[in-house]
Known about the structure:
The complex is a heterodimer.
Chain A: E1 6-14, E2 20-29, E3 34-38, H1 45-52, E4 60-65, E5 68-69, H2 70-79, E6 81-84, H3 96-106, H4 111-124, H5 140-152, E7 158-162, H6 170-185, E8 190-194, H7 198-204, E9 207-212, E10 215-221, H8 222-227, E11 231-238, E12 252-257, E13 260-266, H9 271-280, E14 285-290, H10 294-303
Parallel strand pairs in A: 3-8, 3-9, 6-7, 7-8
Antiparallel strand pairs in A: 1-2, 1-4, 4-5, 9-10, 11-13, 11-14, 12-13
Helix pairs in contact in A: 3-4, 3-5
Chain B: H1 3-23, H2 25-28, H3 30-51, E1 53-54, E2 57-58, H4 59-89, H5 93-97, H6 103-129, H7 140-164, H8 170-184, H9 197-203, H10 207-220, H11 227-250
Antiparallel strand pairs in B: 1-2
Amino acid sequence: MAEPALSIRGLTKVYGNGFEALKGIDLDVEQGDFFALLGPNGAGKSTTLGIVCSLVQKSAGQVKIFGIDIDHDFAKAKYNLGVVPQEFNFSQFEKVEDIILTQAGYYGMPMKEAKPRCERLLKDLGLWDKRNGAARMLSGGMKRRLMIARALIHRPRLLILDEPTAGVDIELRRSMWEYMRRINEEEGTSIILTTHYLEEAESLCRNIAIINRGEIIKNTSMRGLLTELDTETFLLDLAEPLEAAPQVEGFEVERVDSHQLALSVRKGTDLNDAFQQLTRQGVRVLSMRNRANRLEELFVSMTSQPDAGSGIDSANSTPAKETAS
Amino acid sequence: MNTRQLLISLWTMVVKEVRRFVRIWPQTLVPPSITMTMYFIIFGNLIGSRVGEMHGISYMSYIVPGLIMMSVITNSYSNVASSFFSNKFQRSVEEMMVSPMPNWVILGGFVIGGAARGLGVGLIVTLVSLFFTHLDLHHPFLTLMVVVMTALLFSIGGFINALLAKKFDDISIIPIFVLTPLTYLGGVFYSIDLLPEFWQKVTMINPILYMVNAFRYGILGISDIPVSGALIAIAAFIVVFWCLALWMLNRGKGIRS
């Protein structure tokens, strides 16, 4: 059986101030997988990924990349790794093309091999016209794409994307999803994604781990996880205003405002039944949508504890303890 | 990494560093040239004409090696200190850390880049000095060896400073409060024979005195101290500083949490 793209055993990280960011986590990411690592801010995601790519020193445990133990041959392991960090980490004054070619040089890639590869990546990611401009002149979305191009220049087999679409508009985000899907499916690149956009994780990833307070609290397939969702809540937009929520037998109905109801539906319940009851009561429904992304509902229920903020809407905030994220 | 890959990565580091200081040449190459021109005009021409000769050599010619060395020292040091600290500050040091480059290549790239700027500025100052005086190279190989070793030594020093620095102020403390006084008191403008015996002995513990005098010996053929001892001392400092910098880098000092 092929070695996992990433194998983590008993990984522990205790920072100098005594904060235990990781409490002996185990994790496997299979070759070719598109894997989501989710968790609230400060949960340990960035610390985990920081250790994998040598930006953070582990306190204990074992990390293997395609079977190569980072304690034995980190240089060899790093050849297989491409990293797109959460924050911009390139020289803002360098030219776009120079940033990528310099990265190729760090991997010992000859220029005659790096140049055409760089051209292809810049074209694929819509940056070719900007290649001679300083990186600081790029928009936020372009800077994120620049980091993706830089991470892929040496053809890594495992790509780590730490919130790659944070602050990117929806159109660009979707085009980046397409690109990630393509390199995963066509080139077989294993991908680990962390994101606060749970719709992104649900749409792209086949397997998922949820980390909270330094521990993996869920590690399963995306499909398997979503089947655990007991109840889905739909928002119904109404044609006429309502003074009070109607009674719908077998369902929980909440009046959001005069023109909107929230309908909670348990798994396996026939939704037609709810509409028939509403129709009988003269309630006309114009449109319907999920109140929250399905994964988001699960995520919140798993991680919402008194002092653990979900962090879903705070994609740009930095965990206080994870200084090397 | 195999040897070819190591050489490519080292070359990449050096090119990146040289590109940086050439890109900002009005900040890196021009100011030292102007400052040294002022020294030549004021100390060499105006005051120097009143001073007369030093060890049988015109004062202008006497101060040229020291001023070249001063430029090399400050520029080598400050190039690496500011470049590496900027990399830390902008987090672009992570580009190197996630790559398979060994730490000695990272250190070597910064050090060679810093030495390149030090030597480049040294060359510019030398060319400027030729407008004011005539230089005979007495020992070309020794001159080259001393200046290259000094540039390397202070580049490594700048790297250690940048590793330890937490804010931009921290990379200017050593140049202002340590390097500049030691350089001025290192026999750039005078022979230590002019000092009282006590201060001569105090001056002998200043390492920059040895570099300036060894370099002056290479150009003018005169020195206040034994040159072979100076070469051994510079070489020893390079080895010690290199090992210290590499040890700190391997430990992730200042760059890994």
